[in-house]
Amino acid sequence: MKKMKYVLVTGGVVSGLGKGVTASSIGLLLKACGLRVTSIKIDPYLNSDAGTMSPFEHGEVFVLDDGGEVDLDLGNYERFLDVKLTRDNNITTGKIYQYVLDKERRGDYLGKTVQVVPHITDAIQEWIERVAMIPVDGKEGPPDVCVIELGGTIGDIESMPFIEALGQFSYCVGAGNFCLIHVSLVPVLNVVGEQKTKPTQHSVRGLRGLGLTPNILACRSTTALDENVKEKLSQFCHVSAENIITLYDVPNIWHIPLLLRDQKAHEAIFKVLNLLGTAKEPSLKEWTARAEICDTLHEPVRVALVGKYTGLSDSYLSVLKALLHASVACRKKLVVDWIAASDLEDVTETENLDAYKAAWKLLKGADAVLVPGGFGDRGVQGKILAAKYARENGIPFLGICLGMQIAVIEYARSVLGLKDANSTEFDSNTRNPCVIFMPEGSKTHMGGTMRLGSRRTYFQVMDCKSVKLYGNRRFIDERHRHRYEVNPDMVAHLENAGLSFTGKDETGCRMEIVELHDHPYYIGAQFHPEFKSRPGKPSALFLGLIAAACGQLDAVLQGCESREKVSCDIGNCLNSNKKVYQKNVNGYATKPANIIGDAAIYSYCNGVHS
Ligand code: GLN
């Protein structure tokens, strides 16, 4: 049986080096060489999963098909590798201890003293071995390579058991099956402009002291490393100069896999993993074209993102990525205008007039309005005002999860005249509860008790924008994360007043998509379409939003209709449609010539993903 190969990515010096993006890029590069790649993210915190963590502190909670609420890095892996991971692909200290303690309670340890070494460290190794075998690319049989990213920075107390386990693991799987890539920082001191190697030297020493030997160094720096700096690192860190890669600053993260390829990171990895000669040269044509096109876009599409966690962009990472995928497909430069929902409210007008004015100015200047998911009542009134503004002024609007519930509340208040219409999440005593707690939820336990993961939505009519954007499918599967739902008792009332529920669950009682027909684009979804958006396959509802914002919606919808007539894949679209990309002498795309046609092709290619 062929042996699984492991690539471990660790980080040193400081956090926030982009270790996750680096690890995803390594995975993508290996995939481009013809290997089947999976990934595991290790988060050494005690939480069982990311579900109970605040997006303010930790960034968004990413949701998987199986309902796993996981670290946002798994989103990077899914997007870069175009795979579907499972909840077990995210290991946390909490999960490992829970597993070991459950075993202890069952008596599985047969009277032994249960200890970090060997019981926790063995559990970590068994977990990695088991999960690495799970196919994640839709094909059968185990993948070829598993990229493991160890969260945190070398030296953290809480990651020690993982380091110990990984040291043992590298020994057990044997040389030739384990490659360690250490991501580090080479700062440039402004005064002298010199690239400093000392922090990297220290962190590699720390790594070695813990029993792990790096095979490759990936150094973050503002500019490419000088040859003499590489030599110095090589000498002090005992890593050959060709195994030292510079990850210098690039205009967008899609360039990272290209940087790695250009510096032959794949060859260095293959040498360590004994794969030289078996894997092919990386083919990244489509990826390269997209990275380059992204840099050339200049005509803006302005999206007002009206949310609660506007202070930390990672809080809405997948939403931002989905907007980007759609904007690139429409050949527009995405500009996100962050609006703290509460700034739109009347109280802010009295308390902080400047903030109020600035927020409304941004909202009024936007080509599209997006209200993302969220919890709690802060800013709800501001979100309602944003939805109302978009509805009344014909501005393309997308409401996601809470954003959809907001759209329903707003409609009930403004059109049905039910002034106190509300969600029971915000007002448990409202006389007009148009959004209510779902019967299966738990009010006492917060972790893992929502309606989570992939659920099916059936389209109710064939003549609406959402069904067309999804390629006229009868049903779609999208990911969920919510406790409340539109009150089924109020649906008829709302529908009679013109709000259409165009997508429902299999029972027909749970509302999934809401739409206004007499509006250029006004859609709300109870699910989170952002989690399944991919660079080359923008999510249908995001594509619709951006296309509507820049006058391309008809073309996109037509493209969806005529898709049976067209036969192409995205790579062919990019490479064969000469009209779309005019290349300059360097081979860089210079201007998108056939914007509408191109967006239509994108929608054809991508409308059909469930
Ligand atoms: N708070 C709402 C609910 O629980 C919306 C959740 C969300 O937007 N993810 O239903």
From TrEMBL:
Keyword terms, alphabetized: ATP-binding, Glutamine amidotransferase, Ligase, Nucleotide-binding, Pyrimidine biosynthesis
Pathway: Pyrimidine metabolism; CTP biosynthesis via de novo pathway; CTP from UDP: step 2/2
EC number(s) on file: 6.3.4.2
Domain of life: Eukaryota
SUPFAM superfamilies documented for this protein: Class I glutamine amidotransferase-like, P-loop containing nucleoside triphosphate hydrolases
Domain Glutamine amidotransferase residues, every copy: 313-546
Biological process annotations from GO: 'de novo' CTP biosynthetic process; pyrimidine nucleobase biosynthetic process
Entry-linked PROSITE patterns: GATASE_TYPE_1
InterPro entries: Class_I_gatase-like (IPR029062), CTP_synthase (IPR004468), CTP_synthase_N (IPR017456), GATASE (IPR017926), GATase1_CTP_Synthase (IPR033828), P-loop_NTPase (IPR027417)
Catalytic activity of the protein: UTP + L-glutamine + ATP + H2O = CTP + L-glutamate + ADP + phosphate + 2 H(+)
GO terms assigned for molecular function: ATP binding; CTP synthase activity; identical protein binding
Domain CTP synthase N-terminal residue range list: 5-275
Its job: Catalyzes the ATP-dependent amination of UTP to CTP with either L-glutamine or ammonia as the source of nitrogen.
Cross-referenced NCBIfam families: PRK05380.1, PyrG
Similarity-based family: Belongs to the CTP synthase family.
Protein name per the record: CTP synthase
